[in-house]
Design brief:
Shape: elongated
Helix content: over 70%
Number of helices: 9
Order of helices and strands: HHHHHHHHH
Number of strands: 0
Structural class: mainly alpha
Strand content: under 5%
Largest sheet: none
Radius of gyration: 18 Å
Mean pLDDT: 87
């Protein structure tokens, strides 16, 4: 577990030292969400109805921004080969990197969500369900993103390929996340959507590192 936590600490230290990924994710999230009122109009009723979808879509896109750098720098400088040769299973190393990606990109987006929700006229009774859904869904987005990042490692235009691979996988998370917020506003029956999000996260924790590790082994051969 010391090697597992060391990978998380190293990725967090590199992210904070560079100061780009987390700030870029939050800025993209806020600015992209604020563009929607210019396109659909400033009517509070319209914004309140579509605000959960806007927040979830922009959060999903913000999570994609740093995916191509999840493994690429380590692959280029040889660190990934050292991780592969270490006693730590490659699957656990992938899980550690996915956790670090969530802490750098997903968690700041969740913390910025209340501000965006106010600007989009989201009813305050919906905010707890929206935040809890994001707390369940954004780690799953990072885990699914690790699969795409591993499969496109070393490829030309890897960022575009990552998006093409990952977006179809993340659609269920988007659907259930928006559904939970809508259910909280309509009838307070969001528990089913939360359970589905939890099931997706539970399935992603073992399956995504396995798939990503297989992709990394292929790239390292």
């Amino acid at each position: 577990m010391s090697a597992f936590s060391a990978i998380i600490r190293r990725d967090l230290a590199l992210a904070f030292r560079q100061g780009g990924d987390g700030a870029m994710a939050v800025l993209f999230f806020v600015l992209a969400a604020l563009l929607f009122p210019f396109g659909i109009g400033p009517e509070p009723e319209v914004l309140a109805r579509v605000a959960p979808g806007i927040i979830w879509v922009t959060a999903l896109l913000a999570a994609l921004l740093a995916l191509d750098r999840m493994f690429q720098p380590d692959w280029e400088d040889g660190t990934l080969e050292l991780i592969r040769l270490s006693p730590l299973p490659l699957e656990l190393a992938v899980l550690a990197k996915a956790i670090a990606h969530f802490l750098v990109t997903g968690l700041p987006v969740i913390l910025a969500t209340p501000l965006v929700a106010v600007l989009l006229q989201l009813p305050m009774e919906t905010l707890p369900a929206l935040l809890f859904g994001l707390l369940l869904g954004t780690p799953a987005l990072s885990l699914m993103g690790s699969v795409g990042a591993a499969l496109t490692l070393g490829a030309r235009r890897g960022g575009v390929l990552v998006s093409l691979i990952v977006l179809p996988l993340e659609v269920p998370v988007l659907i259930f996340g928006v559904g939970a917020a809508d259910a909280a506003l309509a009838d307070g029956m969001e528990r089913a959507q939360f359970l589905l999000l939890a099931a997706l996260l539970t399935a992603a924790v073992p399956l995504c590192p396995l798939a990503a590790a297989a992709g990394l082994r292929q790239a390292l051969e």
